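In the previous lecture we treated proteins in isolation. Real proteins rarely work alone, and many bind small molecules. This record shows how such a complex is specified: first the sequence, then the SMILES for magnesium ion.
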Amino acid sequence: MRPDAPLAWAALLGEARTRVDAGVPLEVRGTLTRLTGLVLEAVGIRVPVGSQCWIGAPGDKPVLAEVVGFAGDRAFLMPAGDIQGLSSGASVVPAAPYVPPPALGAAPRPAPGPGVLRLPLGDGLLGRVVDAQGFALDHAGALLGVAAQPMGRRQINAMDRDPVREPLDTGVRAINALLTVGRGQRLGLFAGSGVGKSVLLGMMARYTQADVIVVGLIGERGREVKEFIEDILGPEGRRRAVVVAAPADAPPLLRMQGAAYATAVAEHFRDKGRHVLLLMDSLTRYAMAQREIALAIGEPPATKGYPPSCFAKLPQLVERSGNGLNGVGSITAFYTVLSEGDDQQDPIADAARAILDGHIVLSRSLAEAGHFPAIDIEQSASRVMHNVIPRTHMERARRFRALYSRYQKSRDLVQVGAYMAGSDPELDEAIRLLPAMERFLQQDMFESASMAQSTSALAAVLES
Ligand SMILES: Nc1ncnc2c1ncn2[C@@H]1O[C@H](COP(=O)(O)OP(=O)(O)OP(=O)(O)O)[C@@H](O)[C@H]1O
Ligand SMILES: [Mg+2]
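The predicted 3D structure, ligand included, written as tokens:
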């Protein structure tokens, strides 16, 4: 017998007793019992919602899954990978760092906790393209200068946030002059398909005065990811950008995780005092991913098939962007929202309009007429504009809108020649300025217009 054996036994029994007293099981392992559609059901395991588990039979490549709900003793999980090949009876183990049960002679270890998701964050992400799990997609080698960080949601006390006070130069004339964006503002970009969302986001990514651009490509076509990065962002935009891509064929859990990860990357840079521009394409696809998950685990659908949890998730995501604590960095965010035609009934568009501080509406009829960026000035609004620009600028913007909208209201009359010049001086002025106003609103995708250029162009239009 080894001379230290009694001591080692005493230590082992002591550790085992502490664990038993604390109610910590020696090993946590559940069994997969059911798979319906997207949802995995496991028994014999008690893990908190939001934690990660590995699922697989011994010898198979395990699949990562997240706990998304429970009912009695059954836990519901959503896979983050391909579930092809999983079979009933596979083991379900929390993805926490493995902590072996106490063993004779081994040093005491902390008990295993729930597996929290950790993803790479760090300055090494700049210039890189990653997927929702933090793996590089750009064939540029492993990520350097990053560390795995827990993905918990950190809330900022609303009273500690800086208000939006400073204008942000987006490089887009119509936005700078008529829909001025403030640093830390959150806006929606409402549009149907193919009316120029990606091109407009790309222009902002290239020309906005920000230290870091974070782009979340969520639930869009896979082909678009490459196109966006190579053609629209270009090498110039890419240098200061981080792209997180979770395309349409990724499991719904990863599409949601992609949006959360992109936001976490933006928070990382904001907390270092940088001014970040977060471009999320699209918020609707994020809500749709949540709809898939919620319906699959049995939440009843409410508005247009969206269960209530979808509407709760939107503000949780959006509230994470904005200004940081007392002057340290900011996240100005644009979320695209799919809204076809004049469909004001779309529940996601409705919910988004309520939680964002402004909306830019792209119009299909403008795009069809070759008017780009196809921003519908009459329908768009920036709710912080009056806080961030001087009075004279605000007055001019108001005058421009009034004239433009005056013309639009009487457009049919004017075009069929039913309007007699001279009978309405305001309309005469609008008709006279229309060509200049239209030229002002249009901008080539490779042209940038600084804030100073935009405001002087606005003055020039009104004084012409
Ligand atoms: N500023 C611009 N100048 C010239 N052409 C533009 C401009 N913006 C958009 N376009 C044209 O509109 C087309 C569609 O634009 P884009 O791909 O950005 O639309 P989208 O709304 O992202 O479409 P989808 O819904 O399919 O993703 C482009 O291929 C381009 O030809
Ligand atoms: Mg697009």
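Summary for your notes: The mean pLDDT is 88. The pocket of adenosine-5'-triphosphate (ligand 1) is lined by residues 191, 193-199, 372-373, 444-445 (CB under 6 Å).
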